[in-house]
Design a protein that fits this description.
Its cofactor is pyridoxal 5'-phosphate. By secondary structure, this protein is α/β, with parallel strands linked by helices. Helix content is 47%, strand content 16%. It has a 6-stranded mixed beta sheet, with helices on both faces. The chain has a 5-stranded parallel beta sheet with strand order 8-5-6-7-15, with helices on both faces. Strands 1-2 form a two-stranded antiparallel ribbon. Bound molecules: ligand LJ64HWYM.
Length: 463
């Protein structure tokens, strides 16, 4: 399997080089040159497997340059860090299937890919006798999952930018209380979009990227998306076993378009997904795109689901590549237009194509809290606010024709304030969160400016 960039000036990379490159050196995002197509029989066999075996089979299709025994070992190690035998169990509540993705060390879906990517980086660096400085941006969950994926590892330093006071208190503590010497937290005076822009600008200076040996943990790194493809297959198998269904809907709370893009790859591989339901909070640029063809940026609004307080979703470029018939020239034009005008427009024909794969809707703050309340009253189960956005939109857009699987992207205890406001009680705090506020913290507050981050990296990077 070889990898190419959405912008067309990088191609023929193997999996290892694609993982190490992160953001493509031409400013685009890396994608496999072909997506393997699976038959119904292949899918039936795969979806009967235990999670680590399924992960090995799916990831092997894209990572042929890693010897099978090594890949298997990396995957098995990654999922041993989860507190549930099934890794991503599916529970049936109130007529929907909840795919619980929060059984990893930081209690969010990001662990599924970042435990794997942390181990993969360690493996590749050892093989190359090299070191790496990871630079990433987070709106709340990626940061701690990435930190837990590499804390204490040899030859890796990690630098994470989070928007100051725009993540939940627990999310902030999960990052800033990790005081291993290789972990650096930077709170930026700005939004997640500022952080993501800074990361991309720094990666765009190729001489600096190479001199500093920069690595990416955001979903700009293909390995992140790939590891997330697996749980769509897993959930389909579990729901099919329970219902004998032919197809399912997946409802995906969406910010940076990485998780839902993994579902899109699963669909392109042949997984029978009737539609992917994209669910946004009040930061609804992606919903406006799908429903009205209006992809125009607005101010970021703080919401009870802060991990989705994003305007410019980086993986959207990967989707555009397919929407534009795999034509890098059109992607380049669109990205230049977007940078210049802050908007993109789409033809009726393109929107009809979008509609064959996606449906979309959004939830206001009040609707999110009402959904947590109603679901709790009906089932006793507490949804986190991001999952609640997906449940609200999924239920609104489907009518029981085929099972609805809602991705539960985080544990509710990460968002205690929203849960308390919705149901008048605190979610039970898992042991890993207890006394987090009493631990030593380490974090620098800096301006949301590329120069300041570069300077910080220069002083603290591994050389
Ligand atoms: N919602 C994310 C934002 C970063 O997205 P990523 O998938 O590109 O890492 C977060 O929680 O940080």
């Amino acid at each position: 399997m070889q990898y190419m960039s959405t912008r067309g000036r990088i191609s023929g990379l193997d999996f290892k080089d694609a993982v190490m490159m992160g953001l493509a050196d031409d400013g685009g995002l890396l994608l496999p040159q072909q997506i393997p197509a699976l038959s119904r029989g292949d899918i039936a066999a795969l979806t009967r497997m235990a999670y680590p075996d399924l992960a090995f089979r799916i990831i092997s299709l894209f990572a042929g340059s890693i010897p099978a025994a090594d890949l298997k070992h990396l995957i098995d190690r990654s999922y041993q860090a989860f507190d549930h035998d099934e890794v991503t169990p599916v529970v049936h509540k109130d007529g929907i299937y909840v795919l619980e993705l929060f059984h990893g060390p930081t209690l969010a879906f990001k662990d599924v890919a970042l435990q794997f990517l942390g181990n993969m980086f360690e493996y590749l660096l050892k093989e190359r006798g090299a070191h790496m400085n990871i630079l990433g941006a987070t709106s709340g969950d990626t940061g701690s999952a990435a930190i837990y994926g590499v804390r204490g590892k040899q030859n890796i330093n990690i630098f994470i930018l989070h928007p100051h006071q725009r993540v939940s208190p627990i999310q902030e503590l999960q990052m800033t209380t990790v005081t291993d010497p290789n972990v650096f937290n930077l709170a930026i005076r700005g939004t997640f979009d500022d952080g993501q822009r800074i990361v991309k600008e720094i990666f765009g200076d190729l001489a600096f990227k190479s001199r500093m040996a920069l690595g990416a943990i955001n979903s700009i790194n293909w390995a992140r998306v790939l590891a997330q493809v697996v749980y769509y297959f897993y959930a389909f198998g579990r729901v099919q076993r329970a219902t004998s269904c032919e197809e399912v809907y997946f409802s995906v709370p969406t910010g940076n378009f990485g998780d839902i893009f993994a579902g899109y790859i699963a669909k392109r591989m042949g997984l029978p997904i009737r539609r992917l339901i994209l669910a946004t909070n009040e930061n609804d640029i992606l919903t406006r795109f799908i429903n009205q063809g209006d992809y125009s940026t607005a101010q970021v609004v703080p919401t009870p689901s802060p991990s989705m307080d994003i305007q410019l979703a980086s993986n959207f470029e990967r989707y555009l590549f397919y929407l534009y018939g795999q034509n890098p020239g059109r992607v380049n034009d669109a990205m230049s237009r977007l940078a210049a005008t802050g908007r993109l427009e789409f033809t009726a024909e393109e929107l009809a194509c979008v509609g064959r794969d996606f449906m979309a809707g959004s939830a206001t703050r009040q609707e999110t809290l009402d959904t947590i309340r109603a679901f709790h009253a009906a089932t006793g189960y507490i949804l986190d606010p991001h999952t609640a956005v997906g449940v609200k939109v999924g239920k609104e857009l489907t009518g029981g024709e085929v099972p609805l699987v809602c991705l539960a992207t985080a544990h509710p205890a990460k968002f205690g304030d929203a849960v308390r406001e919705a149901i008048g009680q605190d979610p039970v705090l898992p042991p890993v969160f207890r006394d987090l506020d009493k631990k030593e913290k380490r974090c620098e507050l800096i301006d949301a400016d590329t120069g300041s981050v570069r300077e910080y990296l220069q002083k603290n990077a591994l050389a």
